[in-house]
Amino acid sequence: ALSALMPGEAGIAAGTPIVVYVEMACSSLCGDGNGTMISAPDTNRRFTLSQAHVRRTSQALESLRLDLTLMLELSQADGVNELVAAEALAAANRAVNAFIVDDPASHAAAAAIAREFFDAHRSTAAPAGGHEVHAVGHCHIDCAWLWRYCETKRKAA
């Protein structure tokens, strides 16, 4: 379906009608209950989608955005080696200067500048045995009864 959103590139003539299916979760902020949040869901409740935007995304550009964000955060973080912080900011600046919105070749050049910075600092930042990450999370016990189970999985899983 995504190729249908780019008629010039997908071989679909401009002006050809296309059908796009949208999955959306419709629930109120405090559950689906009929009258109260702990009541059974109201299966007759209706929602209206009043506005939608079609967006073309690029994994390469999203990766570049994340790299630039990380370089900026490295340049501003407390406790980061001052030389590394300065190099992060300089590399981000070079990447942004290399980037031209309508030139895909410049996107690759900007990504290469970011990659070069991270490759140069990967060995100095990581401990000898690599990183060990511990993550702890929680979920409110009330999630399972606020929404239908499929919605609970979307919100809490």
From TrEMBL:
- Identify the residues that the record assigns to the Glycoside hydrolase family 38 N-terminal domain, covering every copy: 133-156
Judging by the UniProt lineage, the source's domain of life is Eukaryota
What does the record list as GO biological process?
A: mannose metabolic process; oligosaccharide catabolic process
Q: Name one GO molecular function term.
A: alpha-mannosidase activity
Task: Check the record and name the InterPro entries matching this protein.
Answer: Glyco_hydro/deAcase_b/a-brl, Glyco_hydro_38_N
- A Pfam family that this protein carries is Glyco_hydro_38N
SUPFAM superfamilies xref list? Glycoside hydrolase/deacetylase
Q: Which residues form a coiled coil?
A: none
What's the name of the protein? Glycoside hydrolase family 38 N-terminal domain-containing protein
Q: Which organism is it from?
A: Neobodo designis (Flagellated protozoan)
